[in-house]
């Protein structure tokens, strides 16, 4: 599908020629085979991209909301029309099943559409003054040039979830996609070109993550950095940005609990828990990492999970029927394997799976969907984000106990509650220390709603009008009256 080298640096409306001898090879995680190679750019190209964004900012920010919306509408439509092809590319570089990949692309287009509609809703305020001697007006203005660093687990939707509100607000941008999955970013830039994006408004740089990231953090003209990734990297970005007092928007790690109460619809809850845990092979920041099931139903619930999980089909995401694809790379597989081995060494019982999956013609980055029981709090899997297809199940006896256990983590992104009792749902949701709580729902992310965590799961919100506000500054204009 691709040439041996794919241009991947887009600056000031032009695809740049970068030394092909320094190219970075992109591999298909399902097969381990090379797909193509992309440019390995660094600090100099990033500086050029920032300069291009800075030059474009006055032009883009002075356009009306409707003018910016026109571009976003067009880009959304083009993305939807091309969803199948884009999904194929996404699956090739990331590994998730094609159905999930196409769904992600369509979801990415929805962020463009929603923020097209939001672009004209940039409201200010007229404040009542405490004195007749002045009048007070508050304006919302775009922050300026922003840097966006996106992850490999959702290589399309995380780009538009950041860029759509930034562009709607009037910002210009420099995008650095994850090194494992740059091809989706390249295709999105091509769609932006076709949709008529003015030169310099969005610039794409692939390559040396450290050098590119340092420029985005330290360059004085980059006014905000938005990042999705691990908590460890997020902390590093906070430390490095401190000297420059740079505004950050961080969507970091999660360690989501799912709580199944005895009055839950168990069959429905089992299907939803599995959908949460094994979507993208467990490589999502809001997937269920710890499952708490009431002791009166835990044995039956584990049997339901095993019956349903036995129907999963492991393989290449491009093959019909595949429901579980590979992990992104060998390092990810080793982490999953290590968590399982640690748990078993400390007494966990393997209810299902527990080992790698091997088949001729496939890479070694596959791990069987796994269910563990007899879980104790000293196991790594109860304190670290596994980011893979392993589900530890723990019984609980009462509501207070399970809320305490669920909140016993430095993370605070998402949590899930399964119950048919409205009072239980409301009471538990209020007590869970998380930015997002799903009640009988494991797909809370949607363009119109704020997405973000508390504690060490991040800063700021993405989605909804809150997501656009991240890219705005409030300016007070005080008029003295004669």
Automatic annotation (TrEMBL):
<dbReference type="InterPro" id="IPR015590">
    <property type="entry name" value="Aldehyde_DH_dom"/>
</dbReference>
<dbReference type="InterPro" id="IPR016162">
    <property type="entry name" value="Ald_DH_N"/>
</dbReference>
<feature type="domain" description="Aldehyde dehydrogenase">
    <location>
        <begin position="26"/>
        <end position="476"/>
    </location>
</feature>
<comment type="similarity">
    <text>Belongs to the aldehyde dehydrogenase family.</text>
</comment>
<dbReference type="InterPro" id="IPR016160">
    <property type="entry name" value="Ald_DH_CS_CYS"/>
</dbReference>
<keyword id="KW-0560">Oxidoreductase</keyword>
<dbReference type="Pfam" id="PF00171">
    <property type="entry name" value="Aldedh"/>
</dbReference>
<dbReference type="InterPro" id="IPR050740">
    <property type="entry name" value="Aldehyde_DH_Superfamily"/>
</dbReference>
<dbReference type="InterPro" id="IPR016163">
    <property type="entry name" value="Ald_DH_C"/>
</dbReference>
<dbReference type="GO" id="GO:0004777">
    <property type="term" value="F:succinate-semialdehyde dehydrogenase (NAD+) activity"/>
</dbReference>
<protein>
    <submittedName>
        <fullName>Succinate-semialdehyde dehydrogenase / glutarate-semialdehyde dehydrogenase</fullName>
    </submittedName>
</protein>
<dbReference type="InterPro" id="IPR016161">
    <property type="entry name" value="Ald_DH/histidinol_DH"/>
</dbReference>
<dbReference type="GO" id="GO:0009450">
    <property type="term" value="P:gamma-aminobutyric acid catabolic process"/>
</dbReference>
